Structure formats: C-alpha cells, structure tokens
Amino acid sequence: MTLSEQAYGAIEDMIIHGRLEAGSYVTENQIIEKVGLGRTPVREALQRLSHEHMVTIRPRKGIYIPILDFETELRILEVRRELDVVAVRLAAKRATEEQRIQMRAMAERLQHLDADLANYAETIRETHQLLADATKNPYLIESMLPLQNLSRRYWVSNIVDPAPEIATTADCHARMLRGAADRDPESAEAAAYELNDYLVDFATRSARDS
C-alpha cells in the first residue's frame, strides 16, 4: 500500500465515523497532523476524496466535509443498486478459485460478528473490495466503490441501534458472497436487491425519525 493509499484510508475512515465532522472545515495541516503522513500523500488522498464527493476543497477556506442528507443518499442508492447487481453477477462468473475461497470465509466471518460498528464497517469495506476485484472490470470498480463508501458513511452516521441493522446487512452481504462464490448469480443478485431495498428503507426511517 502506498503512502497516498494509507492517507486515503485514514481520512476516509475519519469521515465515515464522524471524527471529521460533517459540515465542518479542516485545514490540510490539521489533516496531516491527524494521519501522521506527509503533505504529498495527504494532498493526493484529498484530491481523490474530492473526486469521490467525500470532501470539497475550497481555496482559502480549507477542506469542507459535506453533509450527506436523505435526498443525496436516495440519489446515491438509485445508482448503487444497479452497480451492486452487475458486480455480483460478474463476480459469480469471473472470480478465481482463491477469491471464491475468500468469499466463503468472509461470509462466515460476517455471520459471527458482534455489534461493534467500527469493526463491522471495516468488514463491509473489505467485502465490497473483494466482490469488486472479482468482477475484473476496472470501470465498474471505479464507479461502484465510491458510491458504496458514501452510502456506508450515511448508514454509520445515522444508525441508532447497531445490532439489528448489522444483523440485516450482514445476512444480505453473506448471501451475496455465497452466491458469487457458488457461481449462482441469481442468488447473489437477489441478495443485492434485498440489501438495497433495506438501505432505502433505512434512509427513509432515519429521515422520518430525525
């Protein structure tokens, strides 16, 4: 992993878990201090995060952490839904045997996690990366992963009772993984649709209760 990738992961994690607060400004120097890496990798990471709508770089004002609201989340999910389905279909067809072994292991891991939200969010990030890599399609990966990251940020920031929400999404992700691993695209696609239906319902509930 390059220094730029390390910086990207660290900053993204701080945004998703609210350690860089939505609606706030931070300076490049503050971020450098927080991640403990040099200016060049941090700047490269911020440019990537800006392209992915995780931050907005405003000259002479700093780095703005955008607020991710209900309407934005619904627009994200309109696109994510279709990409998730394409991804699991391609993964079912194209995954290597090693990736299929990893998928089954990840599915097992998902179904034995506790309600630790930070640990679960990282496991889901790894799940998305595994399925994305198995598609062997860099254009899909480039489009899909940023949307999943934004959606995960919305989910983490709005969750009230982690245990039942984790149980629901873990089951959907596990079935997506098993379907892809078993060369059963129909099963994987059904789980992907179910996951995205849940995410729309979660966003609607969160907006109603806020």
Walk me through the structure.
The chain is mainly alpha-helical. It has helices at residues 3-16, 28-35, 39-51, 70-94, 97-110, 117-135, 138-158, 162-181, 185-209; strands at 25-26, 56-58, 62-64. It has two domains: 3-64, Winged helix-like DNA-binding domain superfamily/Winged helix DNA-binding domain (Arc Repressor Mutant, subunit A), CATH 1.10.10.10; 70-209, Up-down Bundle (Four Helix Bundle (Hemerythrin (Met), subunit A)), CATH 1.20.120.530. The protein is built from nine helices and three strands; from the N terminus they run αβααββαααααα. The chain has a three-stranded antiparallel beta sheet. α1 (3-16) packs across α3 (39-51) and α4 (70-94) crosses α6.
Overview features:
single chain; 210 residues; mainly alpha; Arc Repressor Mutant, subunit A; Four Helix Bundle (Hemerythrin (Met), subunit A); 2 domains; three-stranded antiparallel β-sheet; 9 helices; 3 strands; 4% strand
SSE map:
Elements (H helix, E strand, L loop, with lengths): L2 H14 L8 E2 L1 H8 L3 H13 L4 E3 L3 E3 L5 H25 L2 H14 L6 H19 L2 H21 L3 H20 L3 H25 L1
Antiparallel strand pairs: 1-3, 2-3
The best one-word shape is: globular
Tell me the number of structural domains: 2
List how many beta strands DSSP finds.
3
Give the CATH level 1 class of the largest domain. Mainly Alpha
Return the average pLDDT rounded to an integer.
96
* CATH architectural category of the largest domain: Up-down Bundle
SS strand fraction: under 5%
- Low-pLDDT stretches are none
Given helix and strand content, the structural type is mainly alpha
The secondary-structure element order is: HEHHEEHHHHHH
The radius of gyration is 17 Å
Biggest sheet: strand arrangement:
1-3-2
* First-residue to last-residue Cα separation: 39 Å
CATH topology heading of the largest domain: Four Helix Bundle (Hemerythrin (Met), subunit A)
Q: Helicity, in percent?
A: over 70%
CATH homologous superfamily identity of the largest domain: GntR ligand-binding domain-like
